[in-house]
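Q: Structure tokens for this one, please.
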Amino acid sequence: MQGMLLRILLSFILLLAFSPEVSVIGIHPASVLVILAYVAGIRLIWKAKARKMWTPKHTAFTVEDRVRYFESETLNKKSVSARFLILAAAVAVAGYMVAQTGIVIAEETRLSETIVGGLFTAVSTSLPELIVTFSAVREGALTLAVSNIVGGNTFDVLTVALVDFAYSEGSVYHAFTGGQTFIITLTLILSAILVMGLLDRERHGIGGIGWESFLILVLFVGGYFVLIFT
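A: Here is the predicted structure, written as tokens:
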């Protein structure tokens, strides 16, 4: 459901980019709809989990979440929450610095801002998510790992609507370039492959990974190769 919410938001933003430009006080009215759609989607996911209308079939290959909880005298709810907020703020500051560095790289090289933003800064800002995912897998929290990846990308789509409020030259959706539209379309394909892979639950894959993981890697590298050299 998180994967489908991601696809719905991406498709809606792509639809706005090709629709007539509308701006009210410098903001596209549909930006509010994007935010509402995100909130409604998260609420629907929460309700679906609580209702448990259907569950995946358990097989010999099903791996249950086995989170290793432990108690520590130095860790408590208050101290952990404080550390979380401090580290989150540090990541936010680092993200701002990465963005500023990316602007300089784009200005000093022949690379377009689409390539720098869509590849270099995107990979840099995704490293914290990657580390969280690896840590979650090592702790046995597989559901947390997958949700972190898909949920993080879904929230990133939400930021496009929030950026429209800060963009003072009209609708941000109509400022998209061909390269940015290409990346959105590529992401739609990759997210569809991911959802199909989650439903297919392949037992044996290419090089020890599922066909969906292999295909995602090939298309991601190939897509940016095309974007860079065309």
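A few notes: The helical segments are 2-17, 30-51, 77-108, 113-138, 142-166, 178-200, 211-228. Residues 2-58+141-228 form one domain.
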